[in-house]
Amino acid sequence: MSAAGIVFSNIHDDCISELTRVRTMASVPFGGKYRLVDFPLSNMVNSNIYNIKIITHYNYHSLMDHIGSGKEWDLARRNGGVKILPPFITAYANRENSLYTTRLEALQSVSASLDEIEDEYVVMSDCDIICNINLRDIINSHISSGADMTVAVKSEILTDKQAAKSIIFRADDENRITDVLSFPEEYSGHGYVWMNIIVMSKQKLMSTILDSTAHNYRSLIQDIIAKRLKKENYRIFEYEGYFGQIKSITEYYRENMSMIKNNSARELFTRQHSPIYTSTPETSPTYYGPSSSVKSSMISDGCTIEGRVENSILFSGVKIGKNTTVKNSIVFEDTVVSGNVKLNCVIADKNVVIREGRVLSGHETAPFYIEKNKMI
Question: Hey, what domains does the chain have and what are their CATH numbers?
Answer without folding.
Answer: 3-269 (3.90.550.10), 287-370 (2.160.10.10)
